[in-house]
Amino acid sequence: DTGVSQNPRHKITKRGQNVTFRCDPISEHNRLYWYRQTLGQGPEFLTYFQNEAQLEKSRLLSDRFSAERPKGSFSTLEIQRTEQGDSAMYLCASSLGGRRALYNSPLHFGNGTRLTVT
Amino acid sequence: AQSVSQHNHHVILSEAASLELGCNYSYGGTVNLFWYVQYPGQHLQLLLKYFSGDPLVKGIKGFEAEFIKSKFSFNLRKPSVQWSDTAEYFCAVNASHLYGGSQGNLIFGKGTKLSVKP
To answer: Which of A67, A63, A7, A1 is nearest to A33 (CA)?
Structure first.
């Protein structure tokens, strides 16, 4: 179990620039989740995929945010025209879900990508 | 909408002291309940979970939590803390009838920082 890998670990960008983060889940996990965590808060759900299908998006995910999981393996989260309010830790998690799932499949989180928008 | 409240922002204890961290949720239906822990510099990891059955659940490292449905609570306890328990603890909930039995969209509390003095 190599765990969930996220790249980059840190990203500093200027307001208005686009950024893209990558998440590599645990290989046998078919579900992948993106969360965002700001200082002093718990993680907030953004979106999740089952295989390559994006099954749910939070209202937090504005139209500047787009997530993909083209082959049902790694995922990317892109933020266009970044704003200072986008500064946060972006967390990825994976699990077994759906018909293949054990009922009690836990989420495995990565270390996150810390975004700072100046 | 579901929400999770963690009563204590920061708890400071001496080693061997007993620990209880409060967690209350607001949701009238059947819920799945979780405690996650984040040790300094590490990713979030599952401490314990409750889906159904015995309301007293035991997790890793001597932690346990009790689900009290009438109080909408899921408090975390440990009889004797160690310096290595210094971490941030997050309570989380989701509606069990959603997401095909996997954990899906978790609603997290704001977290409680635990500092254990040696």
So the answer is: A67
